[in-house]
Amino acid sequence: MLVNNFLEESARKYPDKIALITPDGRYTYREIDEMANKITHSLLTEGLVKGERVAIFMDNSVEVVVSLFGVLKTGGIFLIVNPTTKSEKLTYILNNCRVSVVISSMPKLSVLKEATCDTPSVKIIYLAGDNIPSREVFAKKTFPLREIFSCNNGHKPNSHMIDLDLATIIYTSGSTGNPKGVMMTHLNMVSAANSITQYLENTPSDIILNVLPLSFDYGLYQVLMGFKVGATVIIEKTFLYPYKVIDTILKEKVTGFPIVPTISAILLQMEDIKRQDFAHLRYISNTAAALPVIHIQKLREFFPKTKLYSMYGLTECKRVSYLPPEQLDIRPTSVGKGMPNTEVYIVDEDGKKVGPGVIGELVVRGSNVMRGYWEMPNETTKKLKPCPNSGDTVLHSGDLFKMDEDGYLYFIARKDDIIKSRGEKVSPKEVENILYEIDGVVEAAVVGVKDEVLGEAIKAYVVLKEGITLTEKDILRFCSRHLEEFMVPKYIEFSKELPKTSTGKIKKTDL
User: Fold this and answer.
1) What does the DSSP assignment read for 341-397?
2) CATH number belonging to domain 3-187
3) Which is the most buried residue in 15, 54, 302, 372, by most CB within 10 A?
4) HSE toward the beta carbon, residue 334, CA cutoff 13 A
5) SS3 267
6) Burial class (CB in 10 A: 0-12, 13-18, 19+), 456
7) 232 — phi, psi (to 5°)?
């Protein structure tokens, strides 16, 4: 199976069912498929060939969805660029994988114009919106998407692909340098979608609400998985207006709601939503970073009839593990076991497997593991290494974990996040979990700072709930009661907010 078959099969089975709901309208599977076909025919007419790259640069919208499927139907490779990306980084991405076509929108015009001044590979630009500028603005062939959609060529095009062909390139956030392009084949993506929809028990009756950017693989897969099973997907541009999102959950009787910890932190400040009836909300899932235990407890109070899935994943393989909801009370700090069709284990610094309770690097084996990083063979070989027993390659995550006797995984830290203080190794996550238990703490981040005596001192950044007053002494007193002495922060800094990546993770490199 290919990724574009998700849409095509659901359009065949459920042509008149609502596939996608956006702030601008509702679209059936037949309509989405026909719009995608029209983009495909236009791209093929303009000479796009199998394996060429097409960048999609716009806010969450129906145009993003039909464009990615339209590109796949040509045999091309799509990449969705975060809509908040600035021109310099956009130029780098377009040049790095030699993009042939950019599909964007009028609100992105100024950034796009600046970014494409020095992108010789880009030949064609498609724009959504009104008052599309002439070719002279870009010095490249420019098409209004509206004209493409008004054409009559909505029939299915011929395609000649196999599941080993690349489907997408997902660029990492690039917090430590230029972003890397993660290459995912059709097989990688279909395998991941099969496994995730299996444990989430997705069906055509699901209504999935996505407020995450489609440039973030967690957001993208909400559309892919929804279309795979014939569900309805609602996409919002952001979680900027949380009460509006809650209204949508109630009005549309949403059954699935994927979140990240920053969304959790906002939800848990909305005490009045506890009075609402969310009986239809079948599950909430979380990834990107582990939820603090206190957030898990409070989410279950807010949504008592809803299953909560704690999950762990990497862009390089999409998803690794999930914790069955019935295990939350037993193992609240675990991110579960490897998902279906995925093998996970932990190795020491010499690459040898370790037993229960021993901290080491998590290794992932499965058909969901990436092909590699786009034209970065050295970086690829650091991550993808031969598996001694099977002969294939496995993904070394770069994350430290331990596993219990029953095979459940516990995230410790990124390998390069571990703080070495007083001769001891400190997991920032362990300290952060304690900070989150303090009543009034909304967000917390722990980092190591240079210290002549300690080697590294522990510094905690704390965001308080509005109206709450806590002092540095209050924080340290609580930590001293719940942490070993060497784990207690030396410094506490209060902040109004913490810097975030485009995917909602706390960006510790900016602290």
Assistant:
1) TEEEEEE-TTS-B--TT--EEEEEEETTS--EETT-HHHHHHHEEE-TTTSSEEEEE
2) 3.40.50.980
3) 54
4) 23
5) helix
6) middle
7) -105, 135
pLDDT at position 137, please?
67
425 pLDDT exceeds 90? no
Please provide the average confidence, as pLDDT, over all residues in the chain. Answer: 91
Q: Which residue has the tokens 């199998």?
A: 50
pTM given for the model: 0.85
| 290 close to 316: Cβ distance less than 8 angstroms | no
pLDDT at 158: 80
What does the alpha-carbon distance between residue 185 and residue 482 come to, in Å, rounded to a whole number?
46
For the ranges 74-78, 247-251, 468-472, 484-488, the lowest mean pLDDT is seen at: 484-488
Characterize 472-503 residue by residue with b for buried, 16 or more Cβ atoms within 10 angstroms of its Cβ, and e for exposed. eeebbebbeeebeeebbbeebeeeeebeebeb
The mean pLDDT value for 427-446 works out to 89
Check pLDDT > 80 for residue 160: yes
Which residues neighbour 324 within 8 Å (Cβ) at sequence distance 6 or greater? 199, 336
Rounded Cα distance, 103 and 98, in Å: 14
Alpha-carbon distance 201 to 226, whole Å? 11
Which two tokens mark 374? 């786009």
Give the residue among 167, 171, 214 at the shortest CA–CA distance from 187: 167
In whole angstroms, what is the distance from residue 148 CA to residue 138 CA? 19
CATH of 239-413, one of 3.50.50.60, 3.40.50.12780, 3.30.420.10, 3.40.50.720: 3.40.50.12780
pLDDT at residue 120, as a whole number: 95
Identity of the highest mean pLDDT range in 170-184, 245-259, 470-484: 245-259
- Is 212 in contact with 234 (CB distance < 8 Å)? no
Q: How far apart are CA 158 and CA 492, in angstroms?
A: 61
**Is pLDDT at 86 greater than 90 in this prediction?**
no
- In the chain, where does the domain assigned CATH 3.30.300.30 lie? 419-510
Place of tokens 């459940």: 408
CATH 3.40.50.12780 positions along the chain are 239-413
- Position of tokens 């080697």? 455
CB atoms within 10 A of CB 388: 10
The β-bridge partners of 258 are 285
Instruction: Give the type of residue at 397.
Output: S
Q: Which CATH class is domain 419-510?
A: alpha beta
